[in-house]
């Protein structure tokens, strides 16, 4: 059975098969978790990202993890929140699904997600966390190599929200 769990941590310190980056469409780095991942991974990550030629919103692309403890980084581009009626939920769902598909295709066993789109991109945390959990749960109903899906929270408040949602899920 795959474990879904929340941790409160800096995602750049996690020793998992893949961490997910909340990237910008250029994949050339930014602030927030993206900046932290590039800082910790080193120049090699930026060089590999340059060769990827960007990534559409809702999609994901994988690179090596370079100096990170994680073996791989899956870069996904979350939607900017524009009030909720501009396809934000579908795009955010797609970010989680595409990242999980890549991890499963690579036979990875553990993956850690930040709270995609909930920083500078402004997606309301409660709704975003609900999408994160329900999309992972639905994906894991198909069999895959994944044994651990971690939601890496950067604040106590986010950690509490994820834990509350995880403890009240139906299956
Ligand atoms: P976005 O542009 O997708 O909103 P941000 O990086 O601004 O991305 O924020 C996404 C989430 O990542 C926020 O909840 C933010 O607090 C969190 N975050 C920032 N740095 C880290 C980190 N080092 N580890 C884990 N989460 C982080």
Write the layout of secondary structure elements.
Elements: E1 3-8, E2 18-22, H1 32-41, H2 43-52, E3 60-64, E4 72-76, H3 88-105, E5 110-113, H4 125-140, E6 148-153, H5 156-167
Parallel strand pairs: 1-6, 2-4, 2-5, 5-6
Antiparallel strand pairs: 3-4
Helix pairs in contact: 3-4, 4-5
Bound molecules: adenosine-5'-diphosphate.
> What is the name of the CATH class?
Alpha Beta
What's the number of extended β-strand segments?
Answer: 6
Number of domains: 1
SS field, number of helical segments: 5
Low-pLDDT stretches: none
Describe the biggest sheet? Answer: 6 strands, mixed
Account of the protein in words:
- With 171 residues, the protein is α/β, with parallel strands linked by helices.
- The protein has a single domain (3-168), classed as Leucine Aminopeptidase, subunit E, domain 1 (3-Layer(aba) Sandwich), CATH 3.40.220.10.
- 39% of the residues lie in helices and 18% in strands.
- It is built from five helices and six strands; from the N terminus they run ββααββαβαβα.
- Helix 4 links the parallel strand 5 (110-113) and strand 6.
- The radius of gyration is 15 Å and the shape is globular.
- It starts with a strand and ends with a helix.
- The mean pLDDT is 96.
- Residues 10-12, 22, 32-34, 36, 78, 114-121, 152, 154, 158 line the site of adenosine-5'-diphosphate.
Question: What's a quick, concise take on this entry?
Answer:
The protein is of the alpha/beta class and 171 residues long. It is 39% helix and 18% strand. It is built from 5 helices and 6 strands.
